Amino acid sequence: MFQNQYETVFILTPVLSDTQIKEAVEKFKKTLTDNGAELVHEEHWGLRKLAYTIQHKNTGYYQLFQYKADAKIVATLETDFKRDERVMRYLTTKLDKYALDYSDRRSKGLIGKKSSEPAKADKAEATTEENA
Amino acid sequence: MSLVNDPVDRKDTARKKYCRFKKAGIKFVDYKDPNFLLKFVNEQGKILPRRLTGNSLKFQRKVSVAIKRARHLALLPFVADGLK
């Protein structure tokens, strides 16, 4: 059966300690793997400033999972998020072919360091052309 | 002063707009990159229209979805004052 790839980003409350964060992340990872999802990539962005306050908090721990799974698992995971008070926000997106290509390059560290630099340089050129 | 409408001599004629995604060959607009998406919002955090960004419809749609996702994850503000 063909499985889609999904990407989930969620924000944990900043009141947790490092071990509690690890525990929470492990818990959600476990819900994924227990339901037969294959974890492709994960990222921990760490404590980040929020653009606006959520539950009177200005910061939050961001965590990203990219996984291959059946569509049913997304619902299971999101129920878990809803039940867990430590999760402030979550967002799950289905990855299309362009997104897959992008996240592939991103996980290899090509984007944000190198690959997006030429893109940004392109843009810089474009703007200079505009000004010229 | 003549009453006839003289042709105005504009030095820089209107430049053709172009879609920067098509030009740079970008296929995917990432919602996780708020610094990039900042180019497509005004200083209040509103999404800029196509007539200003010059994006093609296809990419304007993708940009707007990406911005909305970024807002949900608090990577971009819904409302701001002096974002730039």
UniProtKB/TrEMBL annotation, chain B:
Name by which UniProt lists this protein: Small ribosomal subunit protein bS18
Subunit description: Part of the 30S ribosomal subunit. Forms a tight heterodimer with protein bS6.
Keyword Signal appears in the UniProt entry: no
Source organism of the structure: Emticicia soli
InterPro entries: Ribosomal_bS18, Ribosomal_bS18_CS, Ribosomal_bS18_sf
Highest rank taxon of the organism: Bacteria
Function: Binds as a heterodimer with protein bS6 to the central domain of the 16S rRNA, where it helps stabilize the platform of the 30S subunit.
Keywords: Ribonucleoprotein, Ribosomal protein, RNA-binding, rRNA-binding
PROSITE patterns xref list: RIBOSOMAL_S18 (PS00057)
GO CC terms: ribosome
Family (UniProt): Belongs to the bacterial ribosomal protein bS18 family.
Keyword Secreted annotated: no
